[in-house]
Design a protein that fits this description.
By secondary structure, the protein is mainly α. The protein folds into two domains: 270 residues, Hypothetical protein af1432, CATH 1.10.3210; 124 residues, no CATH class. Helices cover 59% and strands 4% of the residues. The chain contains 21 helices and three strands. Strands 1-2-3 form a three-stranded antiparallel sheet. Strand 1 and strand 2 form a beta hairpin. Helix 13 packs across helix 14. It is globular and about 60 Å long. The two termini are 44 Å apart.
């Protein structure tokens, strides 16, 4: 079982396993020492990277997801005896694997958050029939673009960590598929899934746990940032605003994943009102407990909600798929009410932060930057002279043995940029003056 989980599909057969460190600890070291991990500090979470010292970036978000996931993984190991039987490689929860998956889950996000992803996908689809998606780009980075000593491509991660990151186990090129894995990397992932005898469409317990802890972080930490920024105002006028409630209901109804939450079982507007009312009521109680100190109240609210969600995570039977499921659980069954509550809080952060008109103005600026960078690089005869030489060398060396088209190469280059670096290159190309020829890219 260990050999299957610790197998490294990209690593040379002659490589020796470490006798000093566990293989998953080696994965952890490879991830946090990678340039991609460091660049997360310059990529937007909700507010643009550099908006202020307080607000989260992709880096701090990933670290917070990893902390929540590791603690829950330790508890689940203690409280679920069947895990110790190790009956199936996908029905195991190793805290280090879950932590690695959490660290790497946002590696594929481009600059400027979801707007950057949206623009790259639109351009690639419209002009080249290709897709761009953050989760798929994760695997492109981990299995192809990243470099490490002794390897031709990627970080050569273990099978357990790769499948722990794979929360959408599908080929993204399939018709109508919005999330998944690009073809080149899917061949390897599918081979691992076949070796593990994974049921079609099912993720490992470790991937499911990482995914839910990501949702917990979104529904708690982003709201904390929103309160701090004044975008979420903790008063009845704000929480009872009909426009806010209407937008939340519309976000729920327009979500392509709405079927997972059983919204047809409830009056959506009524539940939205109840969750908002209860959230504000809890804030007022904690505000009094914290001697009316807002910063302490924000932190305490966040901590209590993280605890309330994380403490309810457990493993139940997924009878529809003949598999196991990590879920928010009450009395041995999935707690759909709490799941819907978490989704409403996620939508609250989205509606009040991402849909804020000032944020939308910044996103429009981000859209223009990404589009103009693309236009500058996409014609190979000209673009190759304004892309760093090490990228061009890598493309020329590796495109011979792989299907690395120039449009995919340009998408790989732009998506690896931080927000600040994308703005710097844009300014060098289109503003009057920025930087120096002696700066190192």
């Amino acid at each position: 079982m260990n050999n299957i989980r610790k197998y490294r599909p990209g690593e040379a057969a002659s490589s020796k396993w470490s006798e000093e460190r566990d293989e998953f600890e080696r994965d952890y070291a490879r991830l946090i020492q990678s340039p991609t991990f460091r660049r997360l500090q310059g990529k937007s979470q909700v507010f643009g990277a550099g908006s202020g010292d307080y607000y989260r970036t992709r880096l701090t978000h990933s670290l917070e997801v990893a902390q929540i996931a590791r603690e829950v993984a330790k508890r689940l190991e203690r409280t679920n005896p069947f895990l110790s039987k190790r009956e199936h490689p996908g029905l195991i929860i190793d805290p280090t694997v879950v932590e690695c998956a959490s660290i790497a889950h946002d590696f594929g996000h481009p600059p400027f958050g979801h707007k950057g992803e949206e623009v790259l996908n639109h351009i690639l689809l419209k002009d080249h029939g290709l897709k761009y998606e953050g989760n798929a780009q994760n695997f492109r980075i981990l299995m192809f673009l990243e470099k490490r000593a002794g390897s031709e491509s990627g970080l050569d991660l273990t099978a357990a960590v790769l499948l722990g990151i794979n929360k959408y186990p599908f080929l993204i090129e399939e018709e109508g598929r919005l999330k998944g894995v690009y073809g080149a990397e899917w061949d390897v992932i599918q081979e691992l899934r076949d070796i593990w005898k994974m049921p079609a469409g099912c993720s490992t317990l470790e991937a499911q746990l990482m995914d839910l802890c990501d949702d917990i972080a979104y529904s708690t930490h982003d709201i904390e940032d929103g309160i701090r920024a004044g975008k979420i105002q903790m008063n009845a006028t704000f929480f009872e605003d009909q426009r806010l409630i209407r937008h939340l209901v519309m976000e729920i109804l327009n979500d392509p994943n709405q079927h997972k939450f059983g919204w047809e079982q409830v009056d959506i507007e009524q539940m939205v009102r109840r969750v908002l009312h209860d959230y504000l009521e809890q804030w007022e109680l904690i505000f009094a407990e914290c001697n009316r100190e807002e910063s302490r109240t924000r932190r305490e609210m966040k901590a209590r909600w993280v605890s309330s969600f994380a403490s309810r995570l457990d493993i139940i039977d997924d009878t529809d798929r003949g598999w196991k499921k990590v879920a928010l659980v009450r009395d041995g069954v999935e707690d759909m009410d709490l799941l819907r509550t978490m989704e409403i809080l996620k939508k609250l952060a989205w509606v009040t932060l991402i849909k804020d008109f000032r944020v939308l103005r910044l996103q429009k600026r981000s859209e223009i930057i990404v589009e103009r960078l693309w236009d500058s690089f996409i014609h190979k005869d000209k673009g190759q002279w304004i892309i760093p030489p090490d990228w061009i060398d890598s493309y020329e060396r590796r495109s011979i043995n792989s299907n690395w088209s120039w449009p995919r190469f340009v998408a790989d280059y732009i998506s690896g940029m931080t927000d600040a670096y994308a703005e710097k290159v844009y300014a060098e190309l289109f503003a009057s003056k920025s930087g120096s020829i002696y700066e190192m890219d």
